[in-house]
Amino acid sequence: MSIVVRDVREHELDSILELNNAAGPSILPLDGARLRRLYDTAEYFRIAEREGAMAGFLIGFGSGTEHDSSNYAWFSAQHADFFYIDRIVVASRRRGGGVGRAFYADVQSYAEVRYPLLTCEVFLEHDNDPVRLFHGSFGFREVGQHVMPGSGIRASMLVKDMCSYAWVRETYGGRLPDAPWLGRPRVARRTAGARA
């Protein structure tokens, strides 16, 4: 029962919307228009499959984009260069089966050659001790808290240093080798001059 992590396909957006809105109070709900904007602008938008069925998704943005999340804006005010995990959702029947770990291994592999920090937040209002423990086990640490305007939800703002980033930047500058395993950002395929 292997887990496959791959880029999202446009025809999967309805399933992603349903999965997101069934996730419970630890994930903000989406409507179709908002999900479409995320699809059109996210640097990283991947799904996980297990046994041929969608098991979850993860959406992320690099620094310097026009992402309109208040949590992203908080990180932008604190750090010049980072990769932000906007949301990760794992289907309830797949939780505890390694899907979240597969996503975090994949997104870290993507981010560590491009950004010095991997960032995300965890809501504090809900019973999220397992989520905080999960992030702590991946080396994330809290660097502050942020109350989200409109919702009043308090979030623990987490960062993880990408220890390979300095070496990659020193060795390759801003141009990564053309290797299939490195992948290329989705935005770069759509927008000329996007970050490589």
TrEMBL record:
Q: Where are the transmembrane segments?
A: none
User: What top-level branch of life does the organism fall under?
Assistant: Bacteria
Keywords tagged on the record = Transferase
| Pfam families, per database record | Acetyltransf_1
The record's section on InterPro entries has: Acyl_CoA_acyltransferase, GNAT_dom, UCP028520
Looking at the keywords, is Transferase present? yes
Q: Which residues form the signal peptide?
A: none
- Which molecular-function annotation in GO is an example for this chain? acyltransferase activity, transferring groups other than amino-acyl groups
Domain called N-acetyltransferase: residue spans: 3-160
Q: Which Gene3D superfamilies match?
A: 3.40.630.30
Q: Does the keyword Transferase apply?
A: yes
| The protein, known as | GNAT family N-acetyltransferase
The species this protein belongs to is Luteimonas deserti
> Which lineage?
Bacteria, Pseudomonadati, Pseudomonadota, Gammaproteobacteria, Lysobacterales
